[in-house]
Protein 1
Amino acid sequence: MDDFGSESDSDYASYWRDWFISSRGNEYFCEIDEDYLTDRFNLTGLNTEVQYYQHALDLVTDVFDLDCDDDMREMIEKSARHLYGLVHARYIVTTRGLAKMLEKYKKSDFGKCPRVMCHSHPLLPMGTSDLPNMKAVKLYCARCEDIYNPKSSRHAGIDGAYFGTSFHNIIFQVYPALIPTKSTERYIPRVYGFKVHAAAALIRWQNTQRDDMRRRLRKMEVETGFKDGEDDIEEDDDNDIEEDEEIVGAVELNVATAGVLVPAVERGGVA
Amino acid sequence: MSTSSGSPESWIASFCSLLGHEYFAEVSEDFIEDDFNLTGLQTQVPMYKEALEMILDVEPEEDDEDEEDEEEEEEDVSGDARDTRPHAGERRHHSRIASDLSVIESSAEMLYGLIHQRFICSRAGIQQMSEKYESNHFGVCPRTNCNQTRTLPVGLSDIPGEDTVKLFCPSCLDVYVPPNSRFQTVDGAFFGRTFGALFLLTFPEYDLTRSGNDTVTSLTRSQNSDSDMLNGVFKKNIAPGLGPNKIYEPKIYGFKVSEIARSGPRMQWLRNKPQDINVLDEARQFAEEHGETDDDDESMNLNGRAPARRRPAGNARLRQQQRQNQNGSPMAIEANGAESEL
Ligand SMILES: [Zn+2]
Ligand SMILES: [Zn+2]
């Protein structure tokens, strides 16, 4: 967990970036190097995007010395945060930035995948748009390749553009060893041990899609990336020692029997 | 027998109001008092009888008079305190020692959980859970493309002590860890493997495309009801969070990451769904492929497509064949009232 030092406040203006990244709610951000911030080339185009650009930049780089009232100060503060976010999106796809985000990823600073079958795989922050003020930040799981909403409301309001649409994919191109093994492990809805037909039919269809993909990849001699033993195209994906009987449609609950209809033999709920 | 006069709240009500117990329904005393519903639980829970009495707020009659003597009588009975003979109850009770109380308390929680697993699959229990579902007690799916669909608490095992409670999302058919750590001490077996799917079969009309921020609405069948339904459920309710525009497409600077790349997508099948949902009508497909016609005459339809059937046609032997041919086709069990209940 991060430390949310409560004594840090905007009083510590001389270390604005320190304060910013250690503030509660800003756990997803890494610290942008001073060198990067002071190279104007990296900030190209941001002067039109950010109000009070020069003051905001001064604040972020700890050279702010404007004498102004609190309202003005507040506006500049807000602009500084916006500027930091926009530069952050560019910084995290640089070699230095990727390395810093990698460290945070390894510590699960961005949280863990809520999907049970992902077994707490660490997440990466991402945007679904590169333009600011469009979409809030989401979290990407490289194991299930899906995106999730941050569970804390303090993260739900962060602009996704501060991370961008590419960073979380670039990081796996730069560090291919980080690509997690994929798994076919999944949840299968059941009623008293029997699969539910509607869900089972969809799952069968999805399994054929997966097998088709594996065949395509194999033909092109590309690694499929699945766990050992899961790499084979299973002809009976429906597996199961058990009967393939399925329940169709709605059920009429029988009060007398519902309580005791527990299957005699238990298998894991996951197949 | 049941005296709740001493305490302001019943044991069940106070258990359900504990932090982290928000997913639990209040099991009715009627359900617990029917021995039939408790079949097999005696052997699963230590100090079963005491635990059951605690759940029902039952105290042996003498306790009212002899409360003060309780401490002194301890020695008398410590030897057979764990006796399970049914009629030994009164004496045992009477002399509970403190350590027994904590054993009984945890047994009561275990017993309540196991009864709860059964209760929420009964008519009264599932009804109560539907009210909790409507009031958003179970939270929403964390997956972005599920658009905050309401989830249902489930267990991955029916055996206590194996795993904690999870949330099942009917929109993506996947299970998630509850967002708050207070649920990470709640046993999944107290909800069990059956409840989630049974809930959807029992209440097929809930519109699963609705977000948890909206109020719950019901789907209704139109005149030509067969076109709304597939494989026994509303087509609209078949994994509404999955399918072509609900799959995350990885991109770098606007360009899709190719499948051929080492870091390319490998899991899209998990979130996929056929564009034409009728592809999932395996029975109809089988019939078409094998020129099988059904006994009833609804197999032709004006738009040139055979109607979606709610259950596979043919007899068991045929279905068996079909399963072999197609790598797993439906062999349907009809539960009671499947036809009439929708
Ligand atoms: Zn995941
Ligand atoms: Zn979902």
Protein 2
Amino acid sequence: MVLAPDEVRNIYLPTLYPIQEIIPETTDIKTFRLDVSGSSFHHQPGQFAELFVPGVGEAPISITSSPTQKGILEFSIKRVGAVTAAIHRLNSQDRLGVRGPYGNTFPLPDLVHQNLLFVGGGIGLAPLRSLVNYVLDTEKRPDFQKVIILYGARSPQDLVFKWELETWKKRTDLVLMVTVDRGDDHYKGRVGLVPNVLKEDVTVNPDLWKGIICGPPIMIKFTIKALLEMGFHPKNIITTLEMRMKCGLGKCGRCNIGPHYVCKDGPVFTYEQLQHMPGEY
Amino acid sequence: MNSGIVTTNGFISWLKTYSGRINITEKAEKYSREMLGDHQFPLIKNVKEVLFPSYDRVYQYRWDQKGWKLNDLAVPATPTLLVALPCEARAIFEVLDRVFRKEDSIDSGYQQRRQDLSLVIFGCTAAPEPTCFCTRVGGNGLWTHPEALFVLPVSSGLYIETENTVFSGLMNEAKPVEEATRKQIQELNKKAQEKMREDTLPQETPQALYDLFHDPEWENIAWKCLNCGACTFLCPTCYCFDLSTEGRLKGYQLKTWDACMFPKFTLHASGHNPRPGYKERVRQRVLHKFAYFPLREEGRYGCVGCGKCVEICPVNWDIRDVVERMVKKIGSGTR
Ligand SMILES: Cc1cc2nc3c(=O)[nH]c(=O)nc-3n(C[C@H](O)[C@H](O)[C@H](O)COP(=O)(O)OP(=O)(O)OC[C@H]3O[C@@H](n4cnc5c(N)ncnc54)[C@H](O)[C@@H]3O)c2cc1C
Ligand code: SF4
Ligand code: SF4
Ligand code: FES
């Protein structure tokens, strides 16, 4: 335990990485691809990082790229307040501070050799995407069984990762279903709320599938309900939570649900775990 | 442990030779006449001030033509001798160290200050304040740690005890402890241990209190509290903090005290707040100390029973009463 202070790196100090590319997704969401080649940054699907804009502050953001995509990190960010707006003002080649990775990961050992049903809502697809692309990686794909992705947003304009949905749609080793709450004149796809589409259009043997969900709180709530109705066991429903976070290290004291720190023991929990927690989130 | 007997004058002269900052806590000072006579040292309210300052710059950022630069700010070595009571010392060893020296994420600033710290513990043979309750949370008036210098007035002078070579200057001057004094110390220790064993909350208390999460009593408990946060800032174990920036193009990332008593502490970006009201926030403060922390940290309570929060509270909200009220309800509810 006795380490000389100079052997201890500053856990609050971010590293600055250049932005390689900025992909506009919707009116208020952009995806930022950072060049981290040559760094020792290594994450697992489901983890997040604290992003830092000097003079403004930090925000916890899910790492949406898969660790199988070497040399880069991607973050999809919705503009809601001071830090996210400042990130949106950055240009390609600007540098962004990154601390992490933090939190647990999707439970990969429980997911291998399983059928995976991903259900995402809005920007909630971002954390799921790290696992989707991990599973779809040529080397990893044989480790997993069937894959279904159900993705929904409020309107066609609110769908994120449209560029990647195209790639996923072309693949024969997965089923992609996209839905919107309200369509428009140009939209030809499915219309309907995610939980309803799930119940009506997805027929799977609940004992042989894992449901992995992320989205706005209300969508998560009704999607869990739908999965339970479909016969899913709570331990086979996996979700990720959001809390106000500062340190990401289980120290600053604000993100706990009972004795569990969402930044450290989470953000990924099974519904079975959540059932044993007090619901203060 | 090495032990010996020194005189009050010998102890004070040794303190004066200490090359560094000397601080004494308000709580220890009230109780220190026998150890320090009329001698005075700068007072601090709370041990955490030394290790976890209320306002701390953790790194610097700067904009120049080439872009942003981030500079680590190493905490300069500042040898500090801190005089505190056993409860306050336990706040360091049993709580703060377990947060900021956690092996997988050591806080380098804390680590530097911690390594610069020489701790002197004044033993209490009687609870110095009516608000003291250290024995209820696993402590006692003679609690010490081999790393600290333990000091206790006995008939032949001041009994000292340590394993830390930082104190060898003083230890070298000490006379051996006579048999009678040794017996006296043993006797006092036995009594203190017995009292602790009798008083300490049963081992299953943390889980049992957690099971009362949804108990309606929390509403009543929270009723009087103003959510002013005074208790949290005075508390030696309250360690919650905020990270924020100071300055636009040149400035510092700050680590500052924060508290669970304030709604902004947990406010989501969406406007949703998982602890929206007084009940949720007061419950968090009590359960963090009496359930969550011990459940994570091998049974250690996140409260050392120093009673400072009881003394400071403008509306006389008393954590001892609250804990006893909830302990009485154990077994009556489910989470
Ligand atoms: C694990 C995790 C993963 C996440 N992943 C993502 C992700 O992938 N993508 C993403 O977009 N988001 C993600 N989030 C959410 C994201 O962290 C927040 O949206 C972000 O922190 C908001 O920061 P901000 O500084 O932009 O907003 P802030 O400026 O902090 O504002 C937050 C909210 O508070 C309000 N506010 C600000 N100041 C005040 C004030 N003085 N008084 C009253 N109200 C005020 C603002 O209006 C805003 O609505 C994630 C969160 C967590 C915990
Ligand atoms: S909660 Fe009160 S009694 Fe307990 S350590 Fe903090 S200030 Fe002392
Ligand atoms: S318990 Fe007392 S001191 Fe603490 S926040 Fe409530 S009113 Fe303030
Ligand atoms: S974000 Fe600080 S404890 Fe979780």
